[in-house]
Amino acid sequence: MIQIDGSTHSGSGTLLRYAVTLATLVGEPLHMTHIRAKRPKPGLRPQHVEALRACCELSGGRLQGDEVGSDTIYYFPGSRLNGGEFNWDIGTAGSTTMLALTVIPLALYARSSCRFTLQGGLFQDFAPSALHLQKVLLPLINRMGADIETEILCPGYVPKGHGRLSVSVNSLRHPLAPLKLLKQGNISRVRAISLASHLGEERVSERMAARCQSLIEKRGYPVEMQVLQDATAIQKGAVMLLWVETETGCLLGADRSGKRGRSSESIAEFVVKTLMEDLQTGAATDRFLADQLILFAALAEGQTEYLIPRITEHIRSNLWLVEKILGARTELEENHLQINGIGLNPNSI
Questions:
Q1: Which residues are tagged catalytic?
Q2: Is omega for the bond preceding 175 within 30 degrees of 0, making it cis?
Q3: Which residue has the higher pLDDT, 41 or 199?
Q4: Rounded distance, CA 96 to CA 133, Å?
């Protein structure tokens, strides 16, 4: 049985989600304690409970301790990853993107294709947005040989949630290929999405777009700006994503959600500042990709290498997990990260 102390490194929900995913892939039971011990509200939150149950449903496994507030779980994955259509509702504004990142690796190794409809929050602080997932992370994973598509069916914001995200994943036929991102290169394309729900009179989308465009064009880059107005969300909300593609094939992005008291202009300023900080380090990935790619690289066949903007606790946590559970070999020297994947064969699960 895999034993994980959830207070290790970041002490966050990411440890739980990835540990359950990896335990499912290797077919070993998991006992995890001190879950989210370093968070203001330790223990399982609704989004973590739903992620656990989703893994259980996909593999036909068993769970103990899957209750909100629980700091200990026992998870016994089943022996077969089944494809098909699945619907999971977090019930709050908890992150659907983090739920998606929990189940996507399992769907890649399922016996048939999967389609997930996830309900909850799509845009909030302290979690990757559905836009960053769609436009930045998944194109890189697809470059490794995956076939994953997402569609935002309805935006969902804090505090009510009720957003809906569709995720379609075709099963792998061969192990994932490694990824090489060793030179940032010159920026070849700059794009942005400015989205607001029920905020047409306040011109939030237009104001975010105008401020972002002004700041980026001062740096000499034209921006392909998409300004979107939404009336399907159950509450007011806003989000902006800014991302770049370089001549060497790197993708780097930054996003920011709206919040009461947070001006449209400050959202755009934050997004530009965040992305520029990462670009100025010479990194080939942004600060979010740096840790999100680790699990996929560890499953791939061969050595993945990329340059990160900085070392974070999420990076340390994810490297520790793939070494402990998968036996992947990793090396981090300054901003150069190497991951020797195990080459997990989809036909072996």
A1: 314
A2: no
A3: 199
A4: 11
